[in-house]
Design goal:
The chain has 7 helices and 2 strands, in the order ββααααααα. The chain has 213 residues and is mainly alpha-helical.
């Protein structure tokens, strides 16, 4: 798997690695499939995590470990969407807005998780080259994937917040392709948010606080 960390090409004086390019293209495809509410979004996301795990394993332990978590959440998302795929009558899940309780829980989990992961990264510097923004992106990604798994429109907002930090961080750390992909993520997020928002309005049934999704 060493070839994954070799240079694929140079773009605008930025060295593009094979692992960075392939993993993030798959992540981009997974997000586009998520917009279409396709079950394939999750195996593609899993494959993206697997490739990045193979690229990082052995020299970037922290980054490899993060991909393991991403793959686990992708498995959870597959299970959730497969269980709920017929609820909308079109073979797909029906998007919905989260309850205020769910929003509060996700915001709280994101805040606590970011602090905890950042402190872990600071305690073990080999796990991350930039602990706080790296922790923010990692935890934000997990929260976004969880919200997507539950069919919540808010998952698009979570991705936007990740993008705001992810773009400059990736360029600053030499992962130019990731930076470019995050810019495209931003456009996809806006289109996807609009689509899910409109679809959620088609189902006028109220969502009870604490009711299972």
């Amino acid at each position: 798997m060493n070839w994954l960390n070799t240079e694929a090409f140079t773009l605008l004086d930025q060295h593009i690695l094979w692992s960075d390019m392939i993993g993030n293209i798959l992540g981009l495809i997974a997000l586009a499939l998520g917009w279409r509410r396709s079950l394939l979004s999750w195996p593609v996301q899993f494959l993206s995590g697997l490739i990045l795990f193979g690229a990082f394993y052995g020299h970037l332990t922290g980054s490899a470990g993060k991909q393991v978590v991403v793959m686990l959440v992708a498995g959870y998302g597959w299970w959730q969407w497969n269980r709920r795929k017929g609820e909308g009558g079109d073979g797909h899940i029906t998007p919905r807005f989260a309850t205020w309780r769910e929003r509060g829980a996700m915001i709280g989990a994101a805040a606590v998780g970011t602090v905890a992961v950042a402190l872990l990264f600071k305690a073990y510097p080999t796990l991350s080259w930039d602990p706080w923004p790296d922790a923010y992106i990692f935890v934000g990604t997990i929260v976004a994937m969880y919200a997507q798994a539950r069919g919540m429109v808010e998952f698009w907002f979570a991705w936007l917040l990740v993008d705001l930090v992810g773009v400059p961080l990736n360029f600053a750390n030499g992962y130019a392709f990731s930076g470019f992909v995050y810019v495209i993520y931003g456009a996809l997020v806006l289109w996807g948010m609009r689509d899910w928002w409109l679809r959620s309005r088609k189902d006028t049934r109220p969502v009870l606080e604490g009711a299972p999704a």
